[in-house]
Amino acid sequence: MPKHLRSLSLLLINGLLLTSAALAQVDNLPPDVREDTLSRLSPADPTTMNEYGRDIYDRVVGLNNPGPIYGPAMFSVHMPRVADGMDLINKYLRYDSIIGRPLIELAILVAARELDQQYEWAAHEALALAEDVPQAHIDVIKHHLDTDSLPASESLIIRYGREIFRNHTLSAETWAEAVSLFGQQGALEIAAIMGDYAMAAIILTAIDQHIPADRPHRMPIQ
Q1: All domains of the chain, ordered by start, with CATH?
Q2: Mean pLDDT of the chain
Q3: Which residues contact 53 (CB under 8 A, 6 or more apart)?
């Protein structure tokens, strides 16, 4: 078989194996996890909400969205005032932070990995790859590798997150490096991005959010 066909066959086989594994995970849900939300939560019903709640639901989910709805969009609308604030903050931090989209996704992955949040990881590894973050950089986070081989900005963001999540402190040297690379606002926004996604990760863990079968990315939990 020609080399390019062998490579294609391997990709197809690997894709089928990943899909099968994901389907198996969804099929074996714990007894308190629902099949419609893949979590412990029932779907939010906008018809039972007041005008404010419906407006937030429409902004975050969409009144005509047929679903299924998972993750932060699904859980936040059970708390309309929380959803309102989360949506406003997340839109800026996720898309417009001054550190730029590739590094935003890298920071999100650091938070997801440090909290072992599989749903968040499955969504954002794919998004990081779409932003041209190299798989090798993602794997440094995924496998808890050292950052010596990475460019300065990527290395700084990973070390920044690891210090905070693991040591509950940030060294003067790391803060100074962050300010040198991104300015004071950027150094703060790294923490804000990780804090935003840490909050989501904690809630996703509380509701035992499982991963839809069409999301192949996983991280090893050790």
Answers
A1: 99-206 (1.20.1290)
A2: 90
A3: 46, 77, 80
